[in-house]
């Protein structure tokens, strides 16, 4: 799957997907759930929010 394919599936831009992959952007909760759903995973399996919550 390309970044563009994933972006289309979760209704965002390829640039957003790139930023998430590079750690420059933390996905919103709704976007994170959409990404997890695309891969049929739990959100915790896709994202590590430990740095966000202190």
Automatic annotation (TrEMBL):
Residues 1-46 form the HTH cro/C1-type domain. Transmembrane segments: none annotated. SUPFAM superfamilies: lambda repressor-like DNA-binding domains. GO terms for molecular function: DNA binding. InterPro entries: Cro/C1-type_HTH, Lambda_DNA-bd_dom_sf. It comes from the Bacteria. Keywords: DNA-binding. PANTHER family: DNA-BIDING PHAGE PROTEIN, TRACRIPTIONAL REGULATORY PROTEIN-RELATED-RELATED. This is HTH cro/C1-type domain-containing protein. The lineage of its organism: Bacteria, Bacillati, Bacillota, Bacilli, Lactobacillales.
